[in-house]
Hints:
Elements: H1 3-11, H2 48-51, H3 72-75, E1 88-97, H4 102-107, H5 122-131, H6 138-148, E2 152-159, E3 166-176, E4 187-191, E5 201-205, E6 211-213, E7 216-224, E8 228-240, E9 254-255, E10 260-269, H7 271-275, H8 280-293, H9 296-306, H10 340-344, H11 347-352, E11 368-384
Parallel strand pairs: 4-11
Antiparallel strand pairs: 1-2, 1-11, 2-3, 3-4, 3-5, 5-6, 7-8, 8-10, 9-10, 10-11
Helix pairs in contact: 1-6, 8-9
Amino acid sequence: MNRNRTFLFIALLAGVFALGTAACSDDDTPGSCGDGVCNGSETETSCPADCAEDPCNYDGFCDPGENVANCCDDCCTQCDMPNMTGASHDFVVSEMFMPTTSQEAGDNGVDIDGDGDVDNKLGQIIQLLVSNGMDGDLNESLNGEITEGSLLLATRVVESGNSDGIVAVQVLQADIYDATPMFEGNDSVLIPSTSPTNLYLCGDWDGGPGLETSPSDITLAFPLPEIGLLEVTLSNAQIRTVTDPDNPHYDTSSVTSSLMTDVMIGGGLSEEEIYGSGGLIEFLADFINDLVAEGGSTADTIADLFDGNCVVLDDVAGCETIVAGEGECDDLADPPVITATELKCNALLNSALAPDVDVDGDGEDDLLSLGLRVVSAVPVTLEYE
């Protein structure tokens, strides 16, 4: 395993999706910020979710000023995939693109919080790693995995059957069926029994070129070669074609019954999904230690970045009183061992993984935005295990 695997891991945080059912959520705790009532000491400043002017008129139509982020009741598409009887259009992703700079991140992803701008911190994360010694062509490595069949992503668009333009969209893990896919439009891929098949996003599609899904919390699951399967929850996730004419992919972003090109996928990770038990940090620690055990310059770079380099972080549980070089933050093991605490309490990584979008309107960022572009996906036949 080489340095590109390190890049591949970070990049794939926005990668191979198994998508969950769309829903609008509310805080139903009486008397709390988010319960829909401007209570007691709550003000428009302290609790905009309850006290700011409601952008929704709840008339069942997505009117000007309303969007999927601020008025899900009127703007989120609802669907019932188990009872949808329309045509299914199945694709396999033949090329993906992960942003590696801030500029690329702004052109690849979705607007998670409804403010009109693409939200995607992934490019900044990778740019940070590059500036600290990581090298290699991320997208060459990623698409090499696709070409050889070790990273297959199947996408299904199912019509309602009522000629109303409503669709359900699934993205499923896939394996090689009987031959490595050639991506010529006549391949078959296998959907393993472990791949969730009842998870989906609801959207609008009239046969092309535009596709737009409503935001939802979704289950993210993707395979890492030689490592295993990472599952996290991606919040406010969407898959859609580009609608901004200033985006460089506007003219080529399309979904038809025979081809997907330049389609954006994006969403956000909560702090619990990043730092909690069984979350990203713990998984990343296992992955990194496999790299370190192999030795070489990659291991040296990782050790320099993380081994023993803990700092006090008041806003991260477990890092409030940490001491560099002691306990879970010692650097005595030979070869080095990078603990989850060393990653969680590392100033560089903490900055890279800090939330950057506010989706609940409370004035505090609560999700780390991630996004990618499906450059192309071609028709495929899905076989089920």
